Amino acid sequence: MTSSSTTPKGAPAARRLSAFLYRHERLRLAGLLTPPVLWLVVLYLGSLGVMLVSSLWSVNDFTGALVKKTSFANYHTLFSQSVYRTVALRTVGIAIAVTVIDLVLALPLAFFISKIVRSRRWRYALLIMVTMPLWASYLVKGYAWRIMFDKGGVIDWMAAPIGLHGPGLGLTATVVALAYLWLPYMVLPVYAGLERLPESLLEASADLGASSVRTLRSVVLPLLIPSVVAGSIFTFSLTLGDYIMVKIVGGTTQMFANIVYDNVGVAGNLPFAAAAAVFPIVVVVAYLAAVRRTGALENL
Amino acid sequence: MLLGVAAAIALAFIYVPLIVVLVNSFNVSKVFSWPPRGFTLTWWDKAIVNTGVRSAVFTSVKAGLGATAIAMLLGSMFSVAVVRYRWFGRDSLSLIVILPIALPGIVTGIALNSAFRTVLVPLGISFGLFTVVLGHATFCIVVVFNNVAARLRRTGRTLQEASMDLGATTWQTFRFVTFPAVRSALVAGALLSFALSFDEIVVTSFTAGPSIQTLPQWIFNNLFRPNQAPIVNAVAAALVVLFIVPVYLAQRLSDGSTGGRI
Prior knowledge:
The structure holds 2 protein chains of 2 kinds. Chain A folds into 2 domains: 15-46, no CATH class; 83-299, Orthogonal Bundle (MetI-like fold). In chain A, helix 8 (171-196) packs across helix 10 (212-240), helix 9 (199-207) runs antiparallel to helix 10 (212-240) and helix 12 packs antiparallel against helix 13. Chain A has a two-stranded antiparallel ribbon. In chain A, 73% of the residues lie in helices and 1% in strands. Chain A has helices at residues 13-23, 25-54, 73-80, 82-116, 120-135, 138-149, 154-159, 171-196, 199-207, 212-240, 244-249, 256-264, 270-291, and strands spanning 58-59, 66-67. Chain B is globular. Chain B starts with a helix and ends in a 9-residue tail after the last helix. In chain B, 76% of the residues lie in helices and 0% in strands. Chain B has helices at 2-24, 42-49, 51-84, 90-96, 99-102, 105-123, 129-155, 158-165, 170-199, 202-207, 215-222, 229-253. Chain B is mainly alpha-helical. Chain B has a single domain, classed as Orthogonal Bundle (MetI-like fold). The interface between A and B is large, with 94 and 86 residues.
């Protein structure tokens, strides 16, 4: 096709413009790409960069004004003072507990939906039932668990006949509420992974004489590892960044993100908050890098 | 069957708390007590007339609409660019677009907060609805992007090229061929993005400033006030019911593809 103009003279401007754009692919691409890229790179990445740079600054103790002298003092404080270490370890521990609980709940559920339920309509309905609460308001779920765990609440009411009472608001409540929040994020990748499992492998394993338990152990679970890890990425990173749920059901418990939040608001020490915020970022990025080998990232 | 029981327990775990919120919104006693001694509609009544609730709902709706509009525009532009063209940096930028939703909200929150403080405030733009919309749009883009990109990948470009061969202009092709094909994915993305923006609390609390209040902020601020507790409960129960419809619609529109939140 020659590049000579075949648009008839006198054609309306719109047609000439569209013909022009059709031939100049790069221009079309540039037009499509500029606004989103500007938004993402300049606004978002730019602000992330500003935040990281400000973590190297500090705040004047008396006036509260920003002191733009570069130093690693903030990071030094984070590493040396034991309270931050404690909270960091506690947060990681909570994240691990939440991931485990979600795994224990999600695996049978995903298995049931994927392998046991035969009718397509029921499978679809069950999946919707699992994902719908994802969109119920976060705060509503927090409030729900506050009602459940509060003194005189639902859990106390259920435990009363046996003579026990619930643990009340605190660490247990935080772990349960967070596990509750992220459960759908674990069910969905595991379900997708199960769906991708070829039936032929299961049949071959049975043909070779394996019992169902052995099949589960040697065939299914190893193949599910990428999906499980994909789910755990969600539960882990979401827990690390969460500071609201612990305020609602945690009583006096503190998680790492609370440190970030408190320093932005009351203490007005943005550089320190920024430095603290680097911790969850680093952990999540490190986790992502570590699990890349398991192929989980393609399962997101 | 054991698996069925385990699955039922998991499902019960998911739905019982929501049902508790619903039931408790009718609880007669003002101070929290369970099980409810009686049922009443007064709290729903009080919630509807409460001015704080109404202005918060209005603010949230405005923010949601603004953020969704921006996200629809930028998200669909970006998805066309990613799916239909090959260019340098395509893969890395596709990863970057996910970051606002993948990184903890608090990170996005303080990043945007410090950026607005250093750039916008000196220009005279103070924190308010505009900054909230900017923040929300940033993480709503990826929701629209995912939906539209998935649909574009499925429809392929042959129809577009055929239309051009038959003499349609770019605009006509878009109007009669491309747009109808992606329309339902766009609507699904818009619904999800609105829901996401409406419920968002973390980034909002960093970008809203003192002058406005979205509904989640209202809930959070009133959560610990004993007098307001029953009203908060009624609002929460209303949200449980209200979210189900748009999300169900969005799922149906996106052909039941079982992706995750993003």
